[in-house]
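Comment thread on ticket #2218

A.B. wrote:
> Attaching the input chain for the structure job we discussed in standup.
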Amino acid sequence: MKIFLLIFKLARRNILRNKKRSFITSLSVGLGLAVIIFTDAMTAGFENYMRNSATTIISGEAQIHGEKFLETMQAEDTLTGYKEIIEKLEEYPGIAHYSPRVISSATVSSASDVKYIMLLGVDPEKEKELSVFDNYMTEGVYLSSENSLGILIGKNLAENLGVDSGSKIVITVAQPFTGQIYQEMFRVSGVFETDMADLNKSVALVNIEKASEMLGIEGSAHEIAVRFKNPLYAENPDNPFFRDFSVPGNKALGWKELYPEMTAIFNLSKISIAIVGFIIFFIISLGIINTMFMSIYDRIFEFGILRAIGAKRSFIFMLIAAEALFICLWSVFFGSIIGFLVTYIFSITGIDYKGIEYQNVLLRAIYPSIKMHQFIFYPVFLLFFSVLISFYPAFYASGISLTKAFKKTL
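C.D. wrote:
> Ran it. Output below, let me know if you need it in another format.
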C-alpha cells in the first residue's frame, strides 16, 4: 500500500511540474469528452422529437387493428369484436387514453381541384385526449360531436384545393361490401398544420359516426390508438397488453412495430455515436501519448537515477500510468462540466431546425436530452481507455537503459 501511495504522490508532483502543458492536455481531452456528451444528448433529443412527433400527433403509443388491415388497408378489414374491445379498454389497467378510428381512402373535391386522401373518422373528444390535432389548428375550430358534417383538413391540402375555413368540399368513398359510391358534402371546420408533411397534404378528419355511415360499417372501426400511463410500456414487447388484445382476428402493436424504419434510424444513430466516439478517443489517445512522451524525454536522466538507486521497471511503469490517470481525472472534470453546461443551455434554448424535413417529419427545435449514462459511461470509459494507452509510453520509460539515460545530463 505504501508503494502505491508513493507512486501517486510522485505522479501528482510530476504533473504539476509543468502546469501549462498538463492543463492544455487535460482541457483538450476534456473538450473531446464534452463533444461526445453533447453528441449523445443531441441524438437522444432527436430521438425524442421523432418519437413524440409520431406517437403524439396521430399514431399513439400502440394500436389495435384487424389482423390484415395494415397489410391491405382495405375498409372491409375491420376489428373483430369491436364493442368487446372497447369495454375491455375501459377497465384495462395502465391505459391513459384510447381513440377508435375509421380509416378509408377517399377523394375530396372542391370547385377548383380533386385530390386523393386518407379519410380518418374519429371521436372528437377521445381523439383530443390522444392526438394533438387541436393544438395544430391554424384557422377555424376543432371537430365537434354536434356537427356531423364538419371536417378538418391539412394546410397543404387546403391550399391545393383552394379552400379555407367555412368552404364546402365533397368527400367520395366506395362502400367496401356493396361497392356503391357514397358522396357527402362537408363544410371545412378548421385547418391544421402538423410536423408531419404527409398529414398536412393528404389527411382529412370527420366524425366517426359519419365515416362509419358512409362506409356502411356502423358499430365497428379499423383502428384503436392507445396511450399508456407509462410510455415505456409501449416499448416492452412482453407487456401483457399486446397479448391480451392480439386475439384471433386482431393484432396489437407498439410504436416500434408500427414504425420499424424509425427504430432502424435510432439503431443507426447509436452506431454513429460509437463511430464518432471511436474517432474522438483515437485523437485523444494521440494527445495523451504525445504529452507522456514529452514528459518522459524531459526526465530521462531522472529515470536513470531511479534505476541506479534500485527502482524496478514496474515502479517506473506504474508511475507513468499514474501520471496519465491524473491527467485523465482532470480531463473528466473539465469535460463533464463543459459538456453539462453546453448541453443544459441548449436543452433550454433548443437548436432550430425549422424548414428541414426528415423522414416526412418537419423538424422544428431539437432539445438535447441530458441522461445519467452520459456522465457515467463516457467518463469511466475515458479513464479506462486513457490509462490503457498510457501503457505504451510507460513500457517505453520502464525499458530505458542506464546508458541511454545518463547520456542526457542535467
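A.B. wrote:
> Thanks. Noting for the ticket: The mean pLDDT is 86.
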